[in-house]
C-alpha cells in the first residue's frame, strides 16, 4: 500500500515535470504568436482607418479586395519568383559546397567554411548598404563590367525591374548559402564514411554517389532547410525594403513589404486590409510547409 | 609512394580549390569593402572606391557625435539585449525540447504540431497586437519588450528536441532510481552532455537578436534604449548620408556576431550535426 | 581553451541576465543612466522636469540643428528651458510611433512635440484626433509664415503646426556645363519645357550629363510641375488624372525628357542623392531646397551652380514646393502652454519680429534649413551671398520664391498618387504602354486604393 502510493506520486511527479518543461515555451508561443494572429483575423474583417474602423459589410470585403489589387498580385508574383528561382539555386549550391568541403584530403577546410559562412553573420542593414553601393549606376559592378568591355554604358541595375529582381536574388544567395551549407555539412558528417567506400567498390562515380547516396541520406536536412528557406522567402521583407525599396514603381516589392507599406509606409494604416493580407500569407506558408513535409516523408 | 599519392590527390583537387577560393572571395569581398569604406570620405564611398583611405579618425569622430552620441550605449544595449535574449531562449526552448522528446506522449506530440504552426505566422501580422500588449504592460523601451516575442520559437524547440534523441532514456531511469528529481536529471545529466547544441543555439539566437531591426524599432523609441542596427539606420538615412561614417558604424555592428561565430564555430557545427540526424 | 571561453560566456550571460532580472523596473535603466543626467526612467519619453520638452525628429544634418537653434533661442527668454531631442531614423518612424500608440489606445508613449511630414498630417489628425492638440491660440503672427505652407497644417480652420522648413523648390543649373553646350544661365530663365528639352539634349551631347534627375520611384516631378501651373492631381477629393489636360501634358513632357536623355530616373532615393547628384551625373537639380546640403557635399563643384525659377509649360517663371515638415503638439503633452509658447516664439517667428532670429539664422547656418518666416529673411544671414552658388544670395531668393508658390488642392493620398504616376511613367518607358493607357491604369489603381 505504502509502496504503491509512493510509486503513484513518482509517476505523477514525472508527468507533472514533463508538462512543466513545456509550459513556459507553450504559453509564450500562445501569447506571442497565436493571440496576435487571432487578433489579426478579427481585424481583417474590419475596414476604415484610425477611430473610424468598423466591421466590414460584407465581412469578406478585404479578402475580395485583394483579388482586384494589382500591386498585391505583383507582390505575390515577385515573392514566388524569388522563391522559385532563389531557393533551389541556393540549396543546390549549398549542398555542392558542403560536398566539396566534406573531403578528407582538402586543406584549409575551416578557413573556407568560415569565409563562406561569414555573409550571414553580417548585419542586415550593412549588407543591404553594401549591395546597393556595389550595384549602383556608377558602382563597382558597373565599372568592372565596363573595364572588361561587357557593356558600353552603365546599367541602372536597381532602376530596371528585371535587373533589380536579379540583384535581390543574388543578394539572397550571397547571404544565405553559407548558412544552409553548414547544415548540410553537419548532415554529411553524420553519414558513415564506409557507405562511400562501399559505393566506390561498386564502381559508382562521383555524380552517382552524390545522387544515389548523399542526397537520400541528406533528405531530412534538405526538408528542414527547404522549409526554413520557403518560410523565409515568403516572408521576405528586408531585401525588398532596403535594397530596392520595392521599386522601380513597386515592381520588385514582396508581399510582406507591401503589407508593411499599407500598415506603416504610406500615411494612416489600413489595418483591416493589411491583416487580411497577412492572414493569407500565413495560410500560404502553412500549405507549402505541409506539402514539403509530405513530399519529404515518402521514405517512411 | 604515399607522398606521391598524396600530391596526386592534391593535384586532382585543384579545381575544387579554385572554386572554393572564388566562392570565399565573393563571400568576403563585400566585407573587405566595408572595412575599406570605413576609412574613406563619404563621397569616395558613394563613388565606389575599393581602396583604403585616411579618414578613419575623422569618421570615428563623427560617429561618436552621431544620434546624440549614443554609439557606445547602443553597443551596450545590443549586447545586453542579445545576451539576455540568448539566455532566456536557451533555457525555455531547451527544457521544452527536452520535455517534448523525453516525456513524449500523444498529447504532447499534438501540442508540438500546433506550436510548429507559429513558425508560419508572419511578423508583420503580429506587430500591432503585440505592440498593444507590450505597451499595456508598460514594458516599452525595456529589455523585456525586446526579448519577449523571441524567447520561445518553434525552430529552437525543434532543434533541442532533435538533439535530445541521442540522450538515452535508460540514463534517466537509472538516475531516478538513484533518487534524482526530474529537474536535477535535466541539469546534472542532460545539460552537461549537450554543450554543443547549446552553443549552436546560442550562435543562432545571438545573431538573430543582434541583427533584429523591425521589432526593436517599434518598441525602443527612446534613443537611450536603441540597439546597434537602429543606430546604423539612424545614421544611414536622412537627406544627406555620411557613408564613410556609416560604414564604420556598420563595421562596429558586424564585429560581435562574427566574433561569436569564430569562438563557437566548432561547437556550432557539432550542435547542428546533432540536430539534423 | 574553447571550453574555457564557452563557460566564460555562459557565466557572463548569467550575470547579465541577473542584472536584467534584478533591476526590477527595466534593464534599459541601468544602461541609460550613464547618458541621462537626471536619471529619468528610460521607459518614458516624457520628462518630469516642468521646463523640459521632448521632441521626436529625424535627420541630424537638417532638422535637428534647427531644433537645437530653437532651444538656444528660447533659452534667452526662459533660461531653465530644455529641449530633449529624440532622434528617429526617418519621418516614417514618427508616423509609425503615432500609429502604434493610437492602435494600442495608449498615447502616453508619445513625446510632447513631434516633427511631422506636411503631406501626411491631415489624415493623421482626421483618423487619430486624440493624438494631437491644436495651437490656434498660440501667440504668433500666422500671416507671416507663408500661406501655402500653412495650408497643410491648418485643419478645420484651426492651426495645428509650426513650420520648420519651407519646401520651396529650386532649379539649380551647373553653369560650367551649360557653357560647354553653348548656353548661359540667362538662356534657361523663363523657358518652356520644350525649350528645356532642346537645351538638355545639347548638354547631354556635349557633356554626357543629364539636365534633370529624379528619384524614379517616388517621382516628385509631377507634383512640382503641376503646382507651377496651379493645378493639383486631385479635384474635389478625387483623382484628377486622365481628364486633367495639364497633367497629361506634363506626363508627355516627362516621357520625352526621359527618352531624350535629358531626365535621369534614379531607382531610389539614395541613388538619386549619391549617384546622380553627388556622383556628378547631372547638370541640373530641381527639388525642394532641402536638397542643397546634398549638392554641397561635392566641394569640387563650388561656384559652378546657380539657381533660377523652373521652366513651365508656358514659359512663365515656375514656383513650386516639395516636402517639408512642421512641429506639432501631441495629445500626450501636459505642458501645453510651455510648448505653445516655445514654438510660437521660435518657429512661429515671434523672436524674428526685430529682424534677427537665432532660431532661423542658426537653423540656416547649421542645418541649411530655410524657413518660411518672411520677417526672418531680413537678417544678414539670409541676405548673404553663397560661394557655392557663385555668390548668389540664394536664401533671400528662395524666401522670395516662397511667396509665389500657388496653393493647390491637397489629398491624403498624395504619396499614393505619386507612386501611381511614377509607375505609369515606368510603364511607358520600360513596358511599352502608351501614355493614355498608362494614365488610365494609374487612375483606376489610385481610385482602387482610395476605395472609390
TrEMBL record, chain A:
CDD domains (alphabetical): TM_PBP2
Subcellular location(s) of the protein: Cell membrane
Pfam families, per the entry = BPD_transp_1
Bilayer topology: Multi-pass membrane protein
Major place of localization? membrane
Q: Any keyword Membrane?
A: yes
Q: What biological processes does GO assign it? A: transmembrane transport
Q: Read off the Gene3D superfamilies from this record.
A: MetI-like
What is the name listed in the Swiss-Prot or TrEMBL entry for this protein?
Answer: Lactose/L-arabinose transport system permease protein
TrEMBL record, chain B:
Name the GO cellular-component terms: plasma membrane
The ABC transmembrane type-1 domain covers: 75-264
By sequence similarity, the record places it as follows: Belongs to the binding-protein-dependent transport system permease family.
CDD domains of this UniProt entry? Answer: TM_PBP2
Query: Quick one: where is this thing mainly located?
Result: membrane
Check the record and name the Pfam families matching this protein: BPD_transp_1
Q: What is this protein called?
A: Lactose/L-arabinose transport system permease protein
Per its UniProt record, what Gene3D superfamilies does this chain match? Answer: MetI-like (1.10.3720.10)
